[in-house]
Every structure is written in C-alpha cells, then in structure tokens.
Amino acid sequence: MYTSLKDTMNKKERLAGGHRMCAGCGGTVAVRNVLRGLHDEDHAVIGSATSCLEVSTFMYPYTAWQDSFIHNAFENAAATISGVEAAYNVMKRKGKIDDTYKFIAFGGDGGTYDIGFQSLSGAMERNHDMVYVCYDNGAYMNTGIQRSSATPRFADTTTTPVGSDSNGKLQGRKDLTQVMAAHHIPYVAQTTFIKNFSDLHKKAEKAIYTPGAAFLNVMAPCPRGWRYPAQDLMKICNLAVETCYWPLFEVENGKWTLNYKPKNKLPIEDFIKPQGRFKHLFKKGNEDLIAQFQQEVDERWEQLLRLCEE
C-alpha cells in the first residue's frame, strides 16, 4: 500500500526554498518530488554529483537540504552513497544506531550516463540498498550546454553546434534505463512530470522502499539548454510522453511493465518544435532529419512494447 496523493503532498519539504536553481528547472522539481517518497519518520543521507543541483543548493556553510548531504565529485556519487550505506549496516549490526536511514544519490545525465557510469554500475551490481536518481536534462547544462550521451539526435549544443556543415548531434541517445535494467537489480523505472505527479510519486516511494538497489531515470527539462519558456515545463514533459520519446515504464525483478500508453501517439514534431535547440530541423530541406528522428522513436517504442508484452 503506497501513500495517497493527498498525504504525499502534505509531507514536509526536504529541499528548502531559497536555492539558486533556475525558474522552470526540471532538476529541482525532480528532487522535491522524489524526496516526497520518503516517510516522514525516516531519515535520509543524500549524495549529489557535481552539477547544477549541487552548486545551487549547497554553498558551505549554507544548504537547502533538510537531510544529511554529501557533495561528491562528478564521477563518484554512487560509490560514496554505497559506502555510506555499507557503514550504516555495520553500525546497525553493532547496535550503535537505531534510526532508519535511506540512501539516495542524485546526478545529472553528464554525471550519470557518462562520467559517473562506472561507479553507478558498480554500486548497482553490488546491490546496495540505495536509490540512484538521474535527473536527465540531456546535456552538461552546468558547464555550458555541452552534449552528453543523453543528448538526443540533432540537438544543437555548444559542442554540437548547428551550422552550414552540421545538423547538431549526429548520434542517437543512450538508453540508460535499459542499461540499468540489464544489471538485474530489484527496481528500475523511467518517469517525468505529468498530470498530478502520481507516476513519479509512486515510483519514488517504490524505489526507496524496495530492498536492494534501485534506479530512477527522470526526464527533467532545462529551459536554458532546451530553449523553451520556463512556464512550459509540464507541457514539454507531457509532449515527451505522448510522442513516446520518453515512455513511462518500470522493471521489477525482471518484469517489464508499461505504465502509460497514449491513445493517440503524437508525431515527434509536437515534442521538438517548442524547443529552440531543434529549430533548424524545421527549415526547408530538413524534412528527412525529422523522419530519421521519428524512425528512431518508433523503433524504440516498438521494442519497449515487446519487452512489456504489450
């Protein structure tokens, strides 16, 4: 039995206001709503890789975090939190601590898909009782909007600039959620911000209270990097789901479940057109590029349907 939506929304805030994240930033929304998965009586140790989230919520001696917080280098948030979890278990066995603690690491896609992947994979393979949350904004936003392996095909970034000889990033996006599922850990899920956040709330609570390792991949749009009006955060997320660019699904002990299937799947143009990073795709003569993007989305969607036995 999971916490009702009303009770979830009435929980105490674990990330205080007054931090320096941008208006319309999906990262902060992801953190606040993941932490709503914690039960009020439980404590947490939070780790964060170097990122927009870290530099904007923690400047010693000031912090926006209401729980214990550890800032890590880009590459080792998962390793550090897995070590803290191991130390907690030892102290618990020795009777030196009675309180219940949960262990959560946050990282952007740069610190998760790329630089931090080795330590993440190791922590998941060891099956530490922890949750790793990737807030995926599709680039290295903190250091100037450089491409990452989470950046979608044809996106305009500072390291894949659009010009007379370039149509943006040429490679497709790494499917990290499937990579994590291949670790055969107890719980893996993909989610974002739609409707009343119930999908995110349920998956966060499930991830936190499922024994063993868990991974959450949360699409968290960046208004500066994606170039959309800050107030359109929910609109962008909804379009990502309705076009099947970002499907909602979970993998529990090897069983794949599709959480939402659009009644009328929208074309990928509906998702990419509101974003300035894709404006070059709508110039005359680039119709084939949109068709390539659509083909990639369709193929991945069909593969997911087979995995979920839909």
Structural topology:
Elements: H1 5-9, H2 26-35, E1 43-48, H3 52-57, E2 58-59, E3 62-63, E4 68-71, H4 77-93, E5 101-108, H5 109-114, H6 117-126, E6 131-136, E7 162-163, E8 166-167, H7 176-181, E9 187-191, H8 198-209, E10 214-219, H9 223-226, H10 233-242, E11 249-252, E12 255-258, H11 269-272, H12 287-307
Parallel strand pairs: 1-4, 1-5, 5-6, 6-10, 9-10
Antiparallel strand pairs: 2-3, 7-8, 9-11, 11-12
Helix pairs in contact: 2-8, 4-6
Descriptive account of the structure:
The chain is α/β, with parallel strands linked by helices. The strands form 3 sheets. Strands 4-1-5-6-10-9-11-12 form an 8-stranded mixed beta sheet, with helices on both faces. The protein has one domain (5-307): Thiamin diphosphate (ThDP)-binding fold, Pyr/PP domains (Rossmann fold, 3-Layer(aba) Sandwich). It starts with a helix and ends with a helix. Helix content is 36%, strand content 16%. It is built from 12 helices and 12 strands. α2 (26-35) packs across α8 (198-209) and α4 runs parallel beside α6 (117-126).
